[in-house]
Design brief:
Structural class: alpha/beta
CATH class: Mainly Beta
Order of helices and strands: HEEEEEHE
Radius of gyration: 30 Å
Low-confidence stretches: 19-30
Strand order of the largest sheet: 1-5-2-4-3-6
Helix content: 10-25%
Number of strands: 6
Distance between the termini: 70 Å
CATH topology: Barwin-like endoglucanases
Length: 141
Amino acid sequence: MSIIRWLLLAVCLLVGAMMYPVRPKLTDPTNTTTTTEPPNYISLGIQTITAYSSIESCDYPINNLCLMADNKPAVVGAIACPRKFLLGTTFLIGNQEYVCRDRLNIKYDDRFDIFMGYDWQDYLKAKQFGIQHLEVLLLTS
């Protein structure tokens, strides 16, 4: 009688195992692969880089904020870029990423211009930055 019970238990376990197979957990690190690809950049070579503030260049001020070409208020670190690049394009200049949000006067369309801020100290920082020639990398993905 005990052998029959053992056989019945074994059959039940076997049927149960076939009905509910063991599946790996989604959080099981052996079954998930996560890789973080570094961003891809293409060098645009050495470019002319300048800086500006709202003191000398604030077109269309609204509520004491300057509007950029993307129709949003200027923020420190945004960049004006040549027209051949779409607004929203990301660049790497000197280990710092900048997003193109503004345009320069057409006569300066061959350079990049970094927005430094709204007050006199930012104006002085922009003047101190001057004209630099640095490598510019374009983010491709």
